[in-house]
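Here is a typical sample entry:
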Amino acid sequence: MSTAPANKFLSKAYIDGIYIPSGLLIFGCFIVKKDWLPFAVALAAVLGGYKIWSSQETPVLKPTVFQDFELKEKTIISHNVAIYRFSLPKPTSILGLPIGQHISISAVLPQPDGSSKEIVRSYTPVSGDHQPGYFDLLIKSYPTGNISKHMASLTVGQTIKVRGPKGAMVYTPNMVRHFGMIAGGTGITPMLQIIRAVIRGRAAGDKTEVDLIFANVNPEDILLKDDLDGLAAQDKGFRVHYVLNNPPEKWDGGVGFVTPEMITKWLPKPAEDVKLLLCGPPPMISAMKKASEGLGFKKAKPVSKLEDQVFAF
């Protein structure tokens, strides 16, 4: 049985914000005027109940309705990569996004012929529901991109339209013994979401092993490297293996494209309790599906389902 709800009601916020003020109110009435004691108890109960109700984490996502969320902060990572932080309605609000799923972003954008068109793209936040009040998106902007270029033009205070959750992947603790992951570029975002969930779940008994191959062109293209290295140093059950097309001198990681040999060396062997996760550019995903089948994994389907051994986001 989980002790999380009990621990929550014994937290400092509840003690300082509810129990102590209520106790002082009741004790004060007992000392000053005992006739007021029933009213003091009733008032303390009402105020305490409201405090508990108002502090509940409230999911805000709607699967079929686009909602506006305001850009709160923009952190530049490189010339074409930024982390965008969007505010949720209340400090206690959460997206309500299951681990492994993503959101859709919509914008009406001008077209070359002078018309306007609604464009929708999917993104996975790099934040989670354990961080109420906001959500973060890591986005790389491309010159020919639609939504990504639109995002780069946003200034603090402007809004985006979001709906969700979307996707077939829903991570649950110990759903597999071992994850093998292959990510390219911004394909790291769903992987990072799952990796963080696994590590957060260690205290509650999540024993999932994770090995990640993260492929990029240049060293400066490795997104969130400090975060990944920190997680690997923190948790012996997570290992990250980098692959670069243009490696620097004295590079000890992989070189070139991800090969079957790299998959064999760094990722778990095919088994019923092993799942291979893929996310990256379409040509890379096609190559990895073919390579994984050649190594004995079950053939990847055109559209992945949760139960598939090879799952492409």
User: Anything to note?
Assistant: Residues 30 and 216 are 69 Å apart (CA to CA). The radius of gyration is 24 Å. The helical segments are 4-9, 12-32, 37-54, 147-153, 188-200, 225-234, 260-266, 282-294.
